[in-house]
Amino acid sequence: MRYPKIRELIEAIKALIKGPYTSKFPFKPHVPPERYRGQPVYNDDECVGCGACSEVCTTGCIKMEDDLDSDPPKRKLTVRYESCIFCGQCQAACITKEGIKQTNKLDDLSVFDRSEAIDSVEKELVLCEGCGCLIGAKEHLAWVAKKLGPLAYSSPTSYLAALKDLKLAYLKVEKSEELTRQDRIKTLCPKCRREITLET
Ligand code: SF4
Ligand code: SF4
Fold first, then answer.
1. Among 4, 57, 72, 189, which residue's beta carbon has the most beta carbons within 10 A?
2. What are the structural domains of the chain?
């Protein structure tokens, strides 16, 4: 017969006196340790919609969907907790450092329908006024322009983004039928800007 080790005996006596080590979840809410690195959650005020978190996600559980036909065009980023492994790469790669952050939350994952275990954020997109292709998220362009400071004024797309962010320029982007040289002061993709500069 094998006898229990001293350490196991001590643990058993402690458990008898203090009660079980496990929590009574789901009858009582689970209280995770303060520094537990659990579900990553979006912060709408700090996320600029760049999509970097989706690019680096190790399990591909952050889905980025662009709807260019809606008015205004929108980008939706959705993190699905069913396949998130809480690695923290999305938080590490976030360009604003605050757009997505791990919390110590865990109990929201106890759902009957997996599609409910998600968090998402939506951002407006900016399209080229020439060809209508995607340039980027509106808040991302303004963030880049702010980062560049005075250097942003070398690109009309950047300084228009900065002016629009300050509500100093008209926000609606109209697609032009035919671009001429004076259209250079418009929100344009690199291809259209190059064509106007070199060909008109
Ligand atoms: S914590 Fe890791 S797996 Fe989860 S969303 Fe972020 S990058 Fe993806
Ligand atoms: S700002 Fe951060 S959270 Fe928002 S899309 Fe970019 S990387 Fe993701």
1. 57
2. 26-127 (3.30.70.3270), 129-200 (no CATH)
